[in-house]
Amino acid sequence: MATTPETNTWLTQEAADRLSAELAYLENEGRSEIIKKIEAARQEGDLKENGGYHAAKDEQGKIEARIRQLKHMLEHAHIGEPPAGESGVVGFGMKVTVDIGGDQMQFLLGSREISSGDLDVYSEKSPLGSAVMGVKVGETVTYTAPNGKAITVAILEAEFYA
Question: For residue 100, what is the enclosing H or E element?
Answer without folding.
Answer: strand 94-100
